[in-house]
Amino acid sequence: MTQSFSGKIKDKLIAAKRKWAEDGRLLTGTADEKHENRLPPGQRLVKDWPVLDLGITPHISPDAFELSITGEVENPLILDFQALLDLPNVQAKNDIHCVTSWSRYDNHWHGVSALALADIVKPTKDATHVLFTAHDGYTTNVRIDQFLDDDVLIAHHWEGEPLTEEHGGPVRVVIPKLYFWKSTKWVREINFAKHDKPGFWEERGYHNNADPWTEERYG
Question: Using an 8 Å Cβ cutoff, are 181 and 206 in contact?
Answer without folding.
Answer: yes
